[in-house]
Amino acid sequence: MYDKKLKEYKAKQADLIQQMQEHSNADEKHYLTAARLLDVCSRAFEIFESSEPMEKRQFLNFILQNSTLNQTTPLFTLKPVFAAIVNSHKFRSRLAVSS
Fold it and tell me: Which residues constitute the domain of residue 74?
């Protein structure tokens, strides 16, 4: 009975260790992806200006949703991840001004 329970607990322990490792790897990948995303966002204007028209279209499709043209005025909504980045930047700017 003891050996059976020990074997079960060891198997469960190994499973939990593997899950912890997978979560750790996912956290690292998430951090790297976020770092790349912020890098692209900080260089967005430079990237856009140096791109060909087709690349500009792809770039805009990547960051915008529901874009339309009202007469000569472009109307658009940023995709949620980019909207969050812009809002975060605006919030930080307001904090810097008020301090």
Answer: 52-99
